[in-house]
Design goal:
single chain; mainly alpha; about 0% strand; disordered N terminus; 9 helices; elongated; 2 domains; about 170 residues
Length: about 170
C-alpha cells in the first residue's frame, strides 16, 4: 500500500470538488440554485439535492461541467482505467472484481454505464493503491499526453491479478 502523498482520496472528494465548482460558478454568474439547475439540466432542484449530499452520476456531472465551460470527467475516467489495465497488465475482469467486486464493471463502463462520484473515487483509490509511481506516471501520460500505454517494469502479473506495489 502506498503512503505519503499518494494516499487514497476519500470517497466523497470528487463530489465535494464538483459542488465547489458549482458554487463558484453560481457566485461568479450571480445565478440562483434553481436557475442554475434549470439552465444546466432542466431540473431546478438539482443543486439543492447535491448540496444535501446526493451523489451524482458522471454523465450528469459532465452535462453540468459542459454548461459551466469545464472539461467533462466521464470519458477521461474510462481512458484512465484502460490505460491502467495496459500499464499494469491487469485483466479487466480481475480489475472489476478487485476494485468493485464486479468482474463485469469495465465492460459495463464500455457499454455506457455512468458511475457515481463515489464509485469514481473508489476506483481511483484502488488504482493508486495498486500501482507504483512509474505506473501512475505512465497512465497519466497516456491519458493527458496521448502517449501509448505500455506496461511498466519487467515483472509479469500472475493470472491477471493486480498486485500491490510500493514506491
Amino acid at each position: 500500500m502506498n503512503t505519503g502523498t499518494d494516499t487514497a482520496r476519500t470517497f466523497d472528494e470528487s463530489r465535494k470538488a464538483f459542488v465547489e465548482k458549482i458554487k463558484a460558478y453560481m457566485a461568479r454568474k450571480n445565478v440562483t440554485r434553481t436557475g442554475f439547475g434549470r439552465d444546466a439540466l432542466r431540473d431546478g432542484r438539482f443543486v439543492g439535492r447535491v448540496l444535501g449530499g446526493s451523489d451524482v452520476r458522471l454523465r450528469t456531472a459532465d452535462k453540468v461541467l459542459a454548461h459551466m465551460g469545464l472539461e467533462p470527467v466521464g470519458r477521461r475516467f474510462l481512458k484512465e482505467i484502460k490505460a491502467f489495465l495496459k500499464v499494469t497488465r491487469t485483466k479487466s475482469y480481475v480489475f472489476g472484481e478487485e476494485a468493485m467486486s464486479d468482474p463485469t464493471f469495465v465492460l459495463k463502463l464500455e457499454r455506457g454505464r455512468s458511475p457515481t462520484f463515489r464509485t469514481f473515487d473508489r476506483v481511483r483509490a484502488y488504482m493508486t493503491d495498486k500501482s507504483s509511481a512509474a505506473e501512475r506516471e505512465a497512465v497519466r501520460a497516456a491519458v493527458e499526453d496521448g502517449a501509448t500505454a505500455v506496461p511498466v517494469g519487467r515483472a509479469k502479473r500472475r493470472r491477471g491479478r493486480c498486485k500491490s506495489t510500493s514506491t
